[in-house]
Design goal:
Layout (H helix, E strand, L loop, with lengths): L1 E2 L2 E2 L4 E3 L8 H9 L4 E3 L3 E2 H5 L3 H6 L9 E6 L3 H13 L5 E6 L4 H4 L11 H14 L4 E10 L2 E2 L1 H10 L4 E8 L10 H10 L4 E4 L5 H11 L3 E4 L8 H10 L9 H19 L1 H16 L5 H8 L5 H38 L1
Parallel strand pairs: 3-4, 3-12, 4-6, 5-6, 6-7, 7-8, 8-10, 10-11, 11-12
Antiparallel strand pairs: 1-2, 8-9
Length: about 350
Amino acid sequence: MKIAALALSNNLILAPLAGISDLPFRTIVRRFGCGLCYSEMVSADGIVRGQKKTLDILRSGSGDRPLIAQVFGSDPGVLAAAAQIIEERGLADAVDINMGCPVKPVIRRGAGAALMREPGRVRLIVREARGSIRIPLTVKIRSGWSPKEKNALEIARIAEEEGADAVAVHPRTASQGFGGRSDWSVIAEVKAALRIPVIGNGDVEAPEDASALLAQTGCDGIMIGRAALGNPWIFRNALRHLAGEGIERANLEEKRRIIAEHLEMSVGRYGELTGVKNFRKHLFWYTKGLRGSAVFRKGAGTITGTDNVLAEISAYFDMLAAGAAEEKKQLDFLENLNISFNQS
């Protein structure tokens, strides 16, 4: 897949996830085959004002490419200036303008999904941003503001006409938030009408969904968001499924190793206090559904210090491994018993 001159190794893409898709998480998902990552959404105003906290969100690394920096705002001039800063400082390989975020603080500023109600402003935003940078420019949209105001196709066409290099479509309305099911027919409609690449987003929860999204919509890229939380292996298995290969589930040892590495990267990125605190949500996701995870997560939620967290992780996974070994022993015994019974 290509977005203008930006060549990707594959068409699996990590969605921009506020407070989640930071450098450590992006590093992890890239290991399992993610072909392109978006940054967390950042304020165009913050970039233009040189706010350290905003610019720090865009901190990247040599292995963190290709990367799209996603910005939000409502002023065409400010968004264009922010895009120019991103290009000049080499903060990312492309810029994405968010036109789909439904959260109230963003909507109140006339940004995010609020832009779906202002096609004229969208045209000015894309036009000015396109004129300010040479690197690829993309937009991420929703199906519309509400069930009665669905205009994804109109907005996508405007973006293409004004020089956008790709459009990502999350086919829920802003009023839906993240509830209900996404309507993939909206992605198919946009893909059929546009010449530029279209990225499909929404309800890709398993490797099979990636294949289904491609088949049903004809989209060029597959964006994975919430399904990657605690499960970076979804990228490996989506690639395997697309290639007609079997699923390769993560075993306990692989999970233990990735959890520990993710924690250490988080601490290296933010310092011990903040790094451990930020990592806890990932630890909860990584262990969800495992034996005894509810009790483990309750205790782990208050642990401080890298060594203490690593010790708790080690003890928990040792317990899981012992339980798995005992379960296998019992299954082997029953199987041998059954063989002996049949032979007799």
